[in-house]
6-carboxy-5,6,7,8-tetrahydropterin synthase (Neorhodopirellula lusitana), 180 residues
Amino acid sequence: MSQSSTPATQSTTPSSGNPTATFRVEVAKEQFVFSAAHFITFAGDICERIHGHNYGVKISVEGPLDENQYVVDFIALRDAVLKETQALDHHVILPRDHKEILVTQDETETTVRFRERRWVFPNEDAVIMPVVNTTAEEIARVIAENVRSRTREQFGESLSMIEVGVDENCGQWGVCRMPW
Ligand SMILES: [Zn+2]
């Protein structure tokens, strides 16, 4: 897999000869989009109507250069992100941990309640996410955690940070950065 086959960026600082240099790979592909529905609460008790976004995703990983003089393989990172975006595409994203948006599932249907309101979805249309509110920031955190665990064995333990940004409206990014 050639790094040059993908138009992502990599730090151009000369490599291992400089012990103070730090390195990061960033991948922000056109394919990193998913269309999904959600609703959040804000200001205490205002609950949005269900609506959709064409979400965009970008990711970066920081760490030392390996024996190939790169941080990680762009293609492996890309593929790990695509698994996440494809799993969310054309789904309703629901919060698992909200105090008032209550999500229950039986064998076929996912029922959501907020006070007197109720929504029902086929199970296969719903993604229940381990978040309090399905904000772009929290979706970014979940994608970062999933990509980290998906790639940990391949990328190893020497990386330092992973950062995921989720764009929910053409330039409104929620970003989560966490230790590797
Ligand atoms: Zn929204």
Remarks:
- The radius of gyration is 18 Å.
- Helices lie at 74-88, 136-155.
